[in-house]
Amino acid sequence: MKKWFWWGGLLAIATTTTIFFYSYTNNFLGNWYSSLLASQLTVNNTPEIVQKPILKRKLKTPETITAPKVNTHQLIAHIKALNFERYEDISRSQTREYIINNLKKSGWSPTLQTFDFGVNVVAEKPGSNPEAGTILLAAHYDTVIGSPGADDNASGVATVLEVARLLSKFPTARTLKIAFFDLEEKGLLGSSAFANQTENLSNLQGAIVLDMVGFACHTPGCQQYPPGLPITPPSDKGDFLAVIGDAESPQLLAAFNNKNSPNLPPVITLPVPFKGVATPDLLRSDHAPFWLRGIGAVLITDTANFRSPHYHKPTDKPDTIDQEFFTGVAQIVANATATLLN
């Protein structure tokens, strides 16, 4: 009896120590991540991020829903209409006007959310069940200086506009909120300002962020990868769509499962542990401020400079967009958004 009592005591002590260490490590890494990301954003002139309680939300594993078919002509028309540098105030204002006019044509009522450095465009379509929460679909609309940004990020803007058109009359249980972020290229300023407003995060169940979704390369060796990825690189060709999400939100990643859609581009989902602290290359877009807030978010991307030779260059023009790949990606996003909304 004494022997079993002794071993039982050791087991209890070991278990308690393990639980304490796991809890302490999680809290430490979470706080360290928040400080790290906040300091990175502050260096990039992002408005001060006010710490708020981390809210835990759970989505059920979704059943795939097929959205209405996207229109390739409409998608490319958006990219061509935005074929200019969107860096200065006047060009970004012109872009906002284009976005607002197209949203109104699709039956939306967009509003402007201003912050110290720019303006976000936001619109919302209520769902049938107010208690079901909200899904956000977003893309940034600015560019770096000297680039017309066909892929970065007219492709994202065009996809959000097309999904907004398709789902404007599509019945959904959840509310669909769409946002076009300003000044991503200057340090995630628009998305940080958006995520810093409590009302924007009210009952938000998840965010889908698009950043460069129109470029594909089919030559072996054309696809590169950042160091420290938690998975083995799937291919040396850039013909897939990457969906990057925090490991705590598997349901968001699962919505992009397109194994039963062989005619669409393959999707590689990447669950990122510890909010990406070990892979800073995965924190370079507008999903990062939502991770900081404890909101599940996925980044949808063609992997940017790890694939495209036109990244942040004057050559990022409409004729470099792979129309078949881009159309397929837009359909994947439409299907996933419709799935999460229901």
Automatic annotation (TrEMBL):
Protein keywords: Hydrolase, Membrane, Transmembrane, Transmembrane helix
Native organism: Floridaenema aerugineum BLCC-F46
The entry's protein name is M28 family peptidase
- Enumerate the Pfam families for this protein: Peptidase_M28
Transmembrane annotation, as ranges: 6-24
Q: Which residues form a coiled coil?
A: none
Record-annotated Peptidase M28 domain positions: 120-336
